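anyone seen this seq b4? input:
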Amino acid sequence: MQTSGERHQPPPVDSHAIRRRVQREYLLLTAPPALDRDGCHRLLDGIVGDEDNVDVVLDLRVVERSGPGVVATLAGFARSFARSGATLTLSHPSPVFEEALAAADEGAPFLVRRPTTPRPLRHSVRGMVDMV
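predicted toks r here
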């Protein structure tokens, strides 16, 4: 408890951490309707380099099939990204993916965004990348 003679001292400001967060880049990826371990690797391998300041957002709303181990694979990528200073966020999980997520015991190393208002996926031809 403060006495009347003491002044509150705010904690020191970490300007580097603030600047890093403000300058963060976001990369939005859309998962294919059939998402398996190989598909995860095709989407996410090599996307984040050392000390990249990026939040990779994986939109899962069109996932209709998800193979076993997909959540574990994504958890591995989330941990790898975190070591590089990046993050992996799962967005709009489909009911099929929600079931896989609920069945997995990965300790949720990623953020899952579940919007309260459903919005349709917007398609854009600008910036599209064909899967090889």
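The chain has a mean pLDDT of 79. The first strand starts at residue 25 and ends at 30. kinda curious what u guys think
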